[in-house]
Design goal:
Elements: E1 3-6, H1 17-21, E2 28-31, H2 41-44, E3 52-56, H3 63-66, E4 71-74, E5 77-83, E6 86-89, E7 94-97, E8 100-105, H4 130-142, E9 146-152, H5 157-164, H6 173-187, E10 191-197, E11 204-206, E12 209-211, E13 216-218, E14 223-225, E15 230-233
Parallel strand pairs: 1-2, 2-3, 3-6, 8-9, 9-10, 10-12
Antiparallel strand pairs: 1-13, 4-5, 5-6, 7-8, 11-12, 14-15
Length: 234
């Protein structure tokens, strides 16, 4: 059994398809938001490889459908069950997966929202609520402000500028909440091993912060050459 991380999938297949299809039923993939297979009922009932799928909430999710999914306890935290092998990890929740602690805070602002149709191709719930943020603070304190993995969909503005060379960034309330979460972790002398996120459709690493798109890493943070199934290296 192995757990893998990857970036946005958007309900479509790319070069990662062969790798995912060859996973065993007891393997799992954690998608860093914009899972995309929940856009409509046909997608929900469509083909998803038979391993377990866990997804952070992104900005391109059908939140109306997500909110109809039943809430369950899994890996020590609350999830929404999409199918028997597909679950959404919820904002502000802690999980213990393969012996590693993971804190999740998804969502992001859609920069193309003005070209989309509310509640058809864009949902305002993409921005975490004050309740989500309060849940995050409560669980961070309860768990000593420490985790092996901080999993988000986007990242704070300062990190985005450093990693992607943006001259400016839009005002994203989610990015500000993530920055506040990181500041609180530092103020309380907490720690996270890695900050993993997607959203920016790029594969970039800066220190212990890793943005993933098509890249795949295993839980020990070995980068996988998914065209062969081999590892690139330590």
């Amino acid at each position: 059994m192995t757990t893998y991380f990857t970036g946005d999938t958007h309900g479509t297949w790319d070069e990662r398809e062969k790798f995912f299809k060859n996973l065993n039923p007891d393997d799992r993939v954690i998608v860093l938001g914009d899972f995309g297979w929940n856009w409509d009922i046909n997608h929900i009932n469509g083909f998803i490889p038979n391993c377990e799928w866990l997804s952070v909430l992104g900005n391109h999710e059908n939140y109306n459908l997500v909110e109809q999914m039943p809430i369950e306890e899994r890996y020590g935290g609350k999830v929404r069950k999409m199918k028997d092998n597909v679950y959404f990890l919820l904002n502000g929740e802690y999980y213990n997966i393969d012996g590693h602690t993971m804190f999740v805070f998804g969502g992001a602002l859609s920069i193309d929202m003005h070209y989309r149709t509310p509640y058809v191709s864009w949902w305002p719930q993409e921005i975490p609520s004050s309740k989500d943020y309060e849940n995050a603070m409560t669980n961070l304190e309860k768990n000593g402000w420490t985790m092996d993995f901080l999993l988000t969909h986007t990242c704070e503005d300062r990190l985005a500028k450093d990693m992607f060379g943006y001259e400016y960034v839009i005002y994203d309330p989610t990015a500000r909440m993530i920055e506040e979460i990181k500041n609180s972790i530092a103020e309380h002398k907490g720690h996270y091993g890695y900050h993993l996120f997607g959203h920016h459709h790029d594969n970039v690493t800066k220190g212990n912060c890793i943005c993933m798109f098509e890249d795949i890493y295993d839980i020990e943070m070995h980068k996988v050459a998914y065209d062969t199934g081999d590892y690139y290296g330590e």
